């Protein structure tokens, strides 16, 4: 059992006039056994939030609750959480075995118990043959697994991941992503995972917390966040290439922004004319970049077309349209979603539960 | 550069008579045993001179105490400066840093006063303690500790290691090479101390080799026994040489990389 609740967490660095607010009242609940990904651009405060949960940093106000108990002042080690760091933070002078055993040794476990735990985790992570090596003799992926092993061995109540995949190459990242998913299914431990990569967030999360500039923009399942983004920021941030946001479109009030996912455009002779600027082939699909050429509107548009469609040539005028039900509407002023039933958009607290 | 050393070796292998003649011998003689045993344990010819064995011992103990003391004090003070937030931390650092500019010679008067008042003249403590505080080593360790990634500290905190545990289990092993490098430098520094022991050691029993060696040919009552003097000089160079040779591997490693 490990359920985490965050109650209006505020954090700022510095004091007085020079203080920089990093977190503006964060509220969130993470259910027992849930895998939650916090995603946002760099500098949005997501790592700070994770470190506050870990106890490595203190918040200025607000409460961190673990199973209903306030743990604000509890030492990191006493919170029974394990963290996987971005740079792995392995002890360079210790062997893989010692790295994994260190926490257990401090916890005062017997030698036999430590050995059996470390060895069983090593089997899961395919590290058995590397136990006597030093971290510098390992590849990036192996180091990453050791860092995970060090966390798993302690059988914590909560796993905290601080961008653990960002130092891996693309292929390994995808592979490790799958392994983390599998692992979570096996152990079912509550996990908090911080990343700036929206694809990682989409694939790993049971629920996503999208953060921007110290506030939560939206909390929801990957489907919710992708299909019904609560704000323009979420709409632009999740998904690659990002959603098209049209500031002026025919038949739409000027106070409204129109959002269309690149894959929702369809080629339609009666649609809006778009002049093609760039075409990128990504294997199964093509990304077409262009500019709207209707009336006075010159919006830049991204369209995602299946590779089976005849490729447009550069400079060609393509007519495109979008089904009404696929269009997202946002308020131009607040950036909040209009006509969205799940909108949790209020000026201060965007994310509740 | 090697010639004086060579000459000392040659001279230590002859009798005093041979060395007193006009062209001094430039090739090794056969009086090794005579010179070195005279230097170490004394002989009928040179009764009044200090014994090299005792002087070497004094030097060794003093150099070791200085080295170990310097390293442990600096490690701890650097640890405090880097990892703890306490009031006037910056001031402390600068206070330590500024003492870098004050060599022993500058503060020798007051230091002697303190040592004399504490009745530490003519003791191992008096010879070594005033030389232990070291801004250089503190500074060096501080710089090294600052290169240790913060994430390592945090990982240790997550693992439940308290500050001292972190110091012992992680920081110390990581500083191994720096410690070795400092050990060599500081041992030689301690071994070569001259001015301070000259003042604090007034009894023959407490002369380190540097002071004792000087006394051997400074006496007015009898002509110096050059072969014994040279033998002692050769003996005096051995311990630092040994330290350098034995720690060389670590020393170079410590200077070249941080082994991280």
Q: What does this protein look like?
A:
The complex is a heterodimer of chains A (353) and B (260). Chain A is an alpha+beta fold. Chain A has 2 domains: 4-227, 3-Layer(aba) Sandwich (Rossmann fold); 241-338, Beta Barrel (OB fold (Dihydrolipoamide Acetyltransferase, E2P)). Chain A has 8 helices and 18 strands. In chain A, helix 2 crosses helix 3, helix 2 (96-107) packs parallel to helix 4 (140-153) and helix 3 crosses helix 4. Chain A is globular and about 75 Å long. Mean pLDDT of chain A is 87; it is low at 346-353. Chain B has 260 residues and is mainly α. Chain B has helices at 3-11, 16-20, 32-41, 52-83, 89-99, 108-117, 124-128, 135-147, 150-158, 163-174, 176-191, 195-200, 209-216, 226-256. The radius of gyration of chain B is 23 Å and the shape is elongated. The A-B interface holds A 54-56, 75-78, 81-83, 85-94, 102-103, 106-107, 150, 154 and B 149, 151-152, 154-161, 165, 169-170, 173-174, 176, 259-260.
The Cα radius of gyration of chain A reads: 24 Å
Strand content of chain A: 25-35%
Q: Strand order, main sheet of chain A: write it out.
A: 6-7-8-3-9-10
Going by helix content, strand content and strand pairing, the class of chain A is alpha+beta
Q: Describe the global form of chain B.
A: elongated
The total beta strand count of chain A reads: 18
Low-confidence stretches of chain A: 346-353
Which class do the helix and strand fractions of chain B yield?
mainly alpha
- Determine the N-to-C terminus distance of chain B: 37 Å
Domain count of chain B, please report it. 1
Which regions of chain B are unreliable across 5 or more consecutive residues at pLDDT < 50? none
Using the coordinates shown, work out and report the CATH topology of the largest domain in chain A.
Rossmann fold
Overall mean confidence score, pLDDT of chain B: 80
Could you state the order of secondary-structure elements of chain B as H and E? HHHHHHHHHHHHHH
Q: How much helical structure, as a percent, in the residues of chain A?
A: 10-25%
The CATH class designation of chain B is Mainly Alpha
Report the largest inter-chain contact: A-B, 26 and 19 residues
Shape assignment of chain A: globular
